[in-house]
Amino acid sequence: MHMSQVSVAIAGASGYAGGEVARLLLGHPGVTIGALTGASNAGESFGRLQPHLVPLADRVLEPTTLEVLSGHDVVFLGLPHGQSAEIAKALPDSTVVIDCGADFRLTDAAVWEKFYGSPHAGSWPYGLPELPGQREALAGATRIAVPGCYPTISSLTIAPALGAGLVTPDVTVVAASGTSGAGKAAKTNLLGSEVMGNVSAYGVGGVHRHTPEIAQNLRGVAGTDVVVSFTPLLVPMPRGILATVSAPLVDAGTTAAQAREAYAAAYADEQFVHLLPEGIWPQTQSVLGSNAVHLQVTVDEAAGRLVAVGVVDNLAKGTAGAAVQCMNIALGLPEATGLTTVGLAP
Ligand SMILES: NC(=O)C1=CN([C@@H]2O[C@H](COP(=O)(O)OP(=O)(O)OC[C@H]3O[C@@H](n4cnc5c(N)ncnc54)[C@H](OP(=O)(O)O)[C@@H]3O)[C@@H](O)[C@H]2O)C=CC1
Ligand SMILES: CC(=O)N[C@@H](CCC(=O)OP(=O)(O)O)C(=O)O
């Protein structure tokens, strides 16, 4: 599909994910932003809700109804889990629907029900084009499931090692996230007094709902079931995730240089995935606001493990940036339109 100007609606525009989609689309030359919708804030001035989005300050947040969302070429959904399926089913098949939520990410209904405790809505093409085979499925797609933020960075950080057969399918992920990952609505545990000057673990012991999503992605790369031990940490910063991912080496003689070669080869054609110079380790501030993923990899000889570190902005490439990238692929636009690899420093 090629069009001169694509009309876009954003459901959940008062939230973090929807707000970030709006921020990115304001820099997208091929898009006209139509309806901006929400729930409890419907009727409120957008300039009060998202004051950083100055060009949209005069807009009013509309209710999230089929009537309001209909008539756009593309609809982004930044809604709580479980709210996407009904709206998506009611929208015409020709409308490109891009869901930032989890509803359509998992292919296995039993796994969905175990981790989300609700009936499985189905599965859509998965919006992580840098994984083998995914980009092809996104071209021309009219329904796209944007990955979770932890699965994005965890999967990209270890995929080359699994794909090249350097490690066994037994992956450990420890990932620290900024607080925006929990959404704007989250209040419990996120008040300043409990987050500032504090790091805490949660969802420990394989119970976090992103564990099966990471395993699903890695199974696609390794061609075999992959055991994933995932521990998320909450750290006192607004944005960003740093994931440390390790796995046992198949051959204890594998060198750090060989590991780097595998990563360089895997992402040679990927404009958003950047292997840092040797010895430079990823830091979250370098990817803030950008669609880039920064990676570094080495070998821990004594432990017999490959260790890789990756960073992503959870709201950008971790959600809204991926959503815009996927829209570009679906519509046949240049993949990086409206997106940048330039971060912030200091
Ligand atoms: N934050 C992140 O890093 C990531 C988030 N996501 C996903 O994106 C989605 C949105 O998350 P996030 O932006 O963080 O959440 P927020 O809490 O920041 O925003 C939620 C949005 O949904 C609206 N909303 C709430 N309830 C309803 C409802 N019943 N029907 C319609 N709209 C409703 C809210 O409107 P109002 O404010 O008017 O009440 C608000 O616009 C979630 O599914 C989340 O999993 C995905 C990846 C990462
Ligand atoms: C820090 C924090 O709370 N992060 C969120 C994940 C955010 C995300 O990507 O989630 P979805 O799967 O909901 O889209 C969490 O652990 O639940």
UniProtKB/TrEMBL annotation:
Entry keyword set: Amino-acid biosynthesis, Arginine biosynthesis, Cytoplasm, NADP, Oxidoreductase
Q: Where in the cell is it found?
A: Cytoplasm
Quote the Pfam families the UniProt record gives. Semialdhyde_dh (PF01118), Semialdhyde_dhC_1 (PF22698)
Gene Ontology cellular component terms for the protein in this record: cytoplasm
User: Catalytic center at which residues?
Assistant: 149
What pathway does the annotation place this protein in?
A: Amino-acid biosynthesis; L-arginine biosynthesis; N(2)-acetyl-L-ornithine from L-glutamate: step 3/4
- What role does this protein play? Catalyzes the NADPH-dependent reduction of N-acetyl-5-glutamyl phosphate to yield N-acetyl-L-glutamate 5-semialdehyde.
Q: Which PANTHER family match?
A: N-ACETYL-GAMMA-GLUTAMYL-PHOSPHATE REDUCTASE, CHLOROPLASTIC-RELATED, N-ACETYL-GAMMA-GLUTAMYL-PHOSPHATE REDUCTASE, CHLOROPLASTIC-RELATED-RELATED
Q: What is this protein called in UniProt? A: N-acetyl-gamma-glutamyl-phosphate reductase
This protein's species is: Nocardioides daphniae
